[in-house]
Structure formats: C-alpha cells, structure tokens
Amino acid sequence: MPENPSPAPLRAIAVVGAGAVGSWFGGRLSLAGQRVTLIGRAAHVQAVQRQGLQLLRAGGSVTVHPSATTELAGVQGADLVLVCVKCGDTEEVARALAPLLDDDALVLSLQNGVENVDTLARHLRQTVMPVVVYAATAMPAPGVVQHFGGGEVVVGPAGATSEAAERQLQAVAELFTGAGVAVRLSASVMTELWAKLVVNCACNAVSALAQSSYAQMAALPAVLALQQAVVHEAVAVARAEGFALSTHTLLAAVARIATTMPGQRSSMAQDLARGRRTEIQHLNGHVVRRGAALGIVTPVNQALTALVQLAETAGPAATANVASSAEVTARR
Which end of the chain is more exposed for a tag (fewer CB within 10 A), N or C? Predict the structure, then answer.
C-alpha cells in the first residue's frame, strides 16, 4: 500500500533512461498507484518484465510491477516524462523524443550538469523543467534498485514562470509527495543545480581516477587542497554566469559527503571501472569551457578533465580496485 495519500493518477508516466535513479523514482511512483513505464537497458527491462522491480531500502523491500521497454516509443501517451539519461545522450534522446511526446506532456530532467534543460528545450515543444536530485542509489542486479539515503528532489522553472507553470509545479510536488518522496519547490533551481555541479566537480573525477571512496579522499590533506582548488575555480565561473554561490557553503558540502557517504565512490568511478563513457565533459569539462569563454582560468578542472578522458581511452582493464557491481554509487 502507498505510504502517503496520493493525488489522482496521471494518464501515464514514462522514465527515459531507467537506471538506478530513474528506476527508484519510477518505482516509488508506481507504488503510489501511478501508471509508470520504465525505458532502459535490455537486461533491466527483461528482469522487470519477468519478476517486477524490487525496491530495497533500510526499512525492507517491496516489489512493484511497472511496464518496461527498451523502446523510446514507450513515452507515447505519457503526460509526465522523467529524463534520466547520461548527459552525453541528451541531444540524441531529445531528437528522438520530439515526434513521440504528447503536446501537453511535462518533461522533467533528473540529470547531472546544467546544460540538459536547454538541450531538451531546443528540440522539444513541451515544457521542460530541471530537477535537482539528492539520492544514493544502486542497481545490484537487473530488476533491483537499492536506496541508501537521501532522496530529496528540488523542482523549479529554468526561467520565467507563468500561471500555468506554477500549476504544473504544484502538481509535480503533490505527485512526488504522494509517492513518499521529499520535494521542495525552488524559484532558483538553476542556482541549486550549479551548486550540485560544483560539488560533483570536486568529488566525482578524483574518486573515479583513484577508484577511492569519499572517506579515503578526505583523509589526505593533498586531496582536500585539490578539491578546494576545484571549488574555487568552479564558483568563479558560476558567479560570472550570474549564479551567486557561496564558496564556504560548497566547501562544507564537499566535506559532508565524506561523513554522510564515507564508503561510497562516485557514479563516475563506477562508469570508469566498467568501461562506460563518463559525464566528465558535462561537469569539470563544462567549467573549463565556460571559464575559457568568460576569461577565467581553470587549470585544476582542466587537468581532471584531461585525466578522466585519458582513463576512458585506457578501458576498464586499466582501472584498479574495481568494486563489485553491488557497491553503492551516489547521484551526486
């Protein structure tokens, strides 16, 4: 049974890129009585079709039975679409979605980076809104998603709001609340997305290159100094872009990660270990590109970007200390 009273079901909800994060939120919405379709990789889809989606967390486990498909055509008829693909896939996915989406569909980007909403909006006539996700999730096996902590989402418009947009925001808040997901509406969601990007820049690449946990990183003063330099560069770029970020606040946020998620490695570390393309160009690489355009030097972010790119070309066999597939990764 749903944990909280939920609003009337939508016609349908589609999750595009149903990995750990997309499957967790899609599963929560399905548990709350919404009609959900997960669109993801074949192994995961087949497992969900065969045995349902198992949601694991500290309080126990529950199995839900959303629809699942590998085809983007699964978005047809949905009035809410959650886009959870990697940043590097956003352009291609947006082009493919354009002829498939219903005119009145609302598109939410639950992705890292700060460029995805603009990329989606260039190709889609539907309303697109950013969502900042704070969740620690993992997929220990196809058809299984595990939640380790967090789970708050922050939703808001990327630009000026209208009365219709305000109604959509309220409907989204009620939807997530009804699914037991903590949600906060923010008129400055892009500032919060930039803040998350800065923290990601300080943590993800270092964890990936060393295949180290956040606690291991925090134990070395040299690594802390490196992270501080990353934050200072990224904050300078963000401020030049018009986002008033606090260096002190973000350094504290980086430090907290080692306390709240000490044994975890970044999702980028998992991608690198498995030979998958990382999001480095949309995190530290974005800081480097925007810094160059704005006349701000970003040598530390540039070095991390280059090193991760080099590690990507080396392949998974060159990555030491590969953790098991069940290890927790944070969407941070």
Answer: N
291 by DSSP, 3-state: which? helix
Please, what's the b/e burial string for 37-72 (b: 16 or more CB within 10 A of its CB; e: otherwise)?
A: bbbbeeebbebbbeebbbbbeeeeeeebebbbbeee
- Residue pLDDT, tens place only, 249-305: 999 999 999 998 898 889 899 899 989 899 999 999 999 999 999 999 999 999 999
pLDDT (tens digit per residue) in 25-65 = 999 999 999 999 999 999 999 999 999 999 998 889 999 99
Nearest residue to 128 via CA among 140, 144, 111, 151: 111
Q: Find the catalytic residue in 28, 147, 196, 290.
A: 196
Q: Which domains does the chain have, with CATH numbers?
A: 13-187 (3.40.50.720), 190-322 (1.10.1040.10)
How many residues make up the chain in this entry? 332
Whole-structure pTM value: 0.89
